[in-house]
Amino acid sequence: MACWVGGCAPKKLVDAARWMYAASGMKGNYQFEVWEENEEVFDIFSQLSTQWRSDSMTGRVLGLDYPGINAVLDMLAVTDKKTVFKDIRAMEVAVIKELNRGK
């Protein structure tokens, strides 16, 4: 489990999020496995790729736009929003660290 102030999520889910955003700057076709129990939240997280907020002065990533997350969860008719949101938060924290590395 990967934990932060707001909760915990499976380590594999957090690792997948880190990899997804770290690999975005790489060339080539990369594949990785997402465990079945993490597929739903990984797919939702992938659909949030346009919802990132950043500081216009520094370029640092601040986090996801939470109203955007709620809109996506509503559109997808997610029933267990609380659990999915906690998992998304864990992935978000991992990605923020990755994207802000060296800034």
Give a written overview of the molecule.
By secondary structure, the chain is of the alpha+beta class. It has one domain. 49% of the residues lie in helices and 13% in strands. The protein contains four helices and four strands, in the order ββααββαα. The protein has helices spanning 11-22, 39-47, 66-75, 81-99; strands spanning 2-4, 7-9, 52-54, 61-64. Strands 1-2 form a two-stranded antiparallel ribbon. A two-stranded antiparallel sheet has the order 3-4. α1 crosses α4 and α2 (39-47) packs across α4. It is globular. It starts with a strand and ends with a helix.
Briefly say what this structure is.
This protein has helices at 11-22, 39-47, 66-75, 81-99; strands spanning 2-4, 7-9, 52-54, 61-64. It is an alpha+beta fold.
Helices and strands, with pairings:
Blueprint: E1 2-4, E2 7-9, H1 11-22, H2 39-47, E3 52-54, E4 61-64, H3 66-75, H4 81-99
Helix pairs in contact: 1-4, 2-4
Keywords:
103 residues; alpha+beta; two-stranded antiparallel sheet; two-stranded antiparallel ribbon; 4 helices; 4 strands; globular; disordered N terminus
Give, in spatial order, the strands making up the sheet with the most strands.
1-2
CA-to-CA gap between the ends? 27 Å
Low-confidence stretches: 1-6
Oligomer: single chain
Radius of gyration: 13 Å
Average pLDDT: 80
User: Got a strand count?
Assistant: 4
Number of domains: 1
Q: Number of DSSP helices?
A: 4
* Largest sheet composition: 2 strands, antiparallel
Backbone shape? globular
Strand content bin: 5-15%
Q: What is the chain-wise order of helices and strands?
A: EEHHEEHH
Question: Considering DSSP H and I runs of 4 or more, what fraction of the residues is helical?
Answer: 40-55%
Structure classification? alpha+beta
